[in-house]
């Protein structure tokens, strides 16, 4: 079984490949579709746009949010195609991690010239 870091590296390699080919400017949903195609081709398991329930006190709310991708059941990926990510985006991913009890989240913003400048690892200290 791969570690969180190994999974993140494999998925980010695919993100770099996609960004080199298409560059910035596409909708987030297009990058997500292409990444899912590449993950499937590579034999990497993932769930896409999965509803994550939120439990408030004793009330279970069926969809607290939708995770863009959860890869190999242990790494959450949040994909963006925006001008720039801000602290609120990172805090959102940390909240997602807490709700899912996952340790590692990765935010990737494809709408930039240099992809490496808009990749952020977020760790849930559990």
From TrEMBL:
Determine the domain of life of the protein's source. Answer: Bacteria
UniProt xrefs under InterPro entries = GxxExxY
Pfam families reported in the protein's UniProt record: PDDEXK_3 (PF13366)
Please identify the protein, giving its name as recorded. Answer: GxxExxY protein
**Record organism:** Niabella pedocola
